[in-house]
Each structure stands twice: as C-alpha cells, then as structure tokens.
Design goal:
Largest sheet: 8 strands, mixed
Order of helices and strands: HHHEEHHEHEHEHEHEHEEEH
Shape: globular
Structural class: alpha/beta
Mean pLDDT: 91
Number of helices: 11
Strand order of the largest sheet: 5-4-3-6-7-9-8-10
Distance between the termini: 41 Å
Radius of gyration: 18 Å
Helix content: 40-55%
Number of strands: 10
C-alpha cells in the first residue's frame, strides 16, 4: 500500500490533463472517451450483477497463478469479497467499455476473467466483437460463465487454465488479428512481458493494448517502462490505474501521463464551464 501511495504522488507530480495536449488523437481520446461522463444503458445490468455478487457469501477455492491477492487472504474466499477487492471498480470497467465502444475491435482478448464483470463490459460495448477471456481458477471461471449467461453475452469465449499453457495455442488458432487486449492476468514482470510479446505477434498497427495496475508494484512499473520503450510501440498513455498502448505507424514515439477521475480536475472543469 505504501508503494502505491508514493507512486501515486509521483504520478500526480508529473501528470497533466487536456490543457496543453498537442496531439489531436490523444486530445480527442482523452476529452471524449477517457473523461466521458455520460451513462450507457448497458451499465445497468452489469452493475446489477455486481450487486448480486457483493451480497453473495458463497465460498469457493481460488487458484491463483499470478502475483496474489492485494488482501493476502487464504485460498477459500467468499464471492462478495472477491467482488469487492478483485473485480475492477465501475469507473475503470466502464472506461474499458468506452474504449471498446470507440475503437470497435472485432477480436478482444482479456487476460484475467475473475468473476466476469469486466469481461461483460468489454463484450457489451460492441455486440459484434468476439471476446476471448482467460481465467486460471476453475471455480472462478464457473462463476464468470454464470455472469455471462445471466447477461446473455453470447460472444464471450472463456478459456480456463494456466495462461502459460493456454494463451499461445489459443492465439495460434486465431484466424483474425487481436484488435484489443486487456492485461490483468499476472502482476509480475516476466509473465507480463512474455504475454505482451505473444499478443504483439497477433496485432495490427490499429490494435490497442491496455495494461492494468501499471503502478501496483516495482515489478509492474518496470514492466510498463519496458513496454513503453518497445520498438513496436508508438504511443502510450499512463492513467496511473491503467496504461494504454498504441502501435500507430508514422506516429512519432510519444508518452503521455494524464490524470483520470481526479477530483480537482473535475472541480476546475465545472468552474470553467460555469464561468464561460
């Protein structure tokens, strides 16, 4: 926790907002997608499912192949605790929804399904998108499948098992490139970079990769820094909670550090609008 607090203070010291952004692509994305405050009707059913899980005391045995839980609890966990501590909060899951809604990917890959709430947002954003989601824990995967069934998400395909065993062969069998990928499957340096390289072989110049928890630990900050310097990466946006990666050709290499969901920015923007 102390590491994340210090990391956030460092982030605030170097981050900015829309003012002074000279990239039309980044400005448009930041102003109209990242900081969009409107409501999509698809949110309601997914958040209703979240509320169900937040009150569900059913216990399951969690198999964790990643860096472990933030809460350091045992393997037996209640669904309500997983929904509270491991599921992406609405503001971040809905940001992923808006990104998919904006870029319209045909093939979406998610590493780390958990209870399926973020997967649901990725799928609900575009009914035409095929969503491949990977989950290592069999019992968690079963709950996620129930989530998809409850929400009638028919374009989601869940691949259960250790990512080290399932990711490469599943990608090799694809007949279409990966247009959008969300990395939330392993919060360690070596696996994160290995999965990045695997997915990098299946993307196009228009693909978008999103890395979760890039400031969660020193290892994740190192992984994020390595991704930023990757020769195929043209542009990145650090939102502290997640990092966006773009591969646009003929794009000068640029890295942006921008605040997301920051209260002071909201107050200043509201003040500016009232005084206009």
């Amino acid at each position: 926790m102390l590491f994340q607090i210090l990391s956030y203070l460092r982030f605030l010291a170097r981050s900015g907002n829309a003012h002074g952004l000279h990239s039309p692509f980044v400005f448009g994305l930041y102003a109209h997608v990242i900081n969009h405050t409107g409501h999509f009707r698809a949110y309601d059913a997914i958040e209703a499912r979240r509320q169900e899980l937040l009150t569900d005391s059913t216990q399951i045995e969690v198999t964790d192949f990643g860096a472990g839980s933030r809460t350091r609890v045992g393997r037996t966990r209640r669904l309500q605790d997983i929904a509270r501590t491991a599921a992406k909060p609405p503001r971040l899951a809905q940001l992923l929804f808006r990104l998919v809604n904006h870029f319209r990917p045909r093939t979406v890959v998610e590493l780390g399904t958990s209870l399926g709430l973020t997967t649901a947002y990725l799928s609900a954003a575009d009914s035409r998108a095929r969503v491949l989601t990977f989950e290592g824990c069999p019992q968690t995967a079963a709950i996620a499948r129930e989530t998809f069934s409850r929400l009638d998400l028919t374009k989601v395909e869940l691949v259960a098992g250790n990512l080290d065993d399932t990711l490469a062969p599943t990608l090799a069998a694809l007949t279409q490139p990966v247009d959008f990928a969300f990395f939330d499957g392993n919060h360690r340096l070596e696996p994160t970079l290995r999965y990045f390289e695997l997915l990098n072989q299946h993307r196009t110049e228009h693909s978008v990769f999103v890395l979760d928890d890039i400031h969660w630990s020193a290892e994740m900050e190192q992984a994020w820094g390595t991704v930023q310097q990757h020769p195929d990466v043209a542009l990145t946006i650090d939102l502290f909670y997640i990092g966006l990666v773009f591969f646009r050709r003929n794009q000068p290499k640029q890295h942006f550090t921008l605040r997301f969901d920051y209260l002071l920015d909201k107050v200043l923007e509201r003040t500016r609008r009232l005084s206009a």
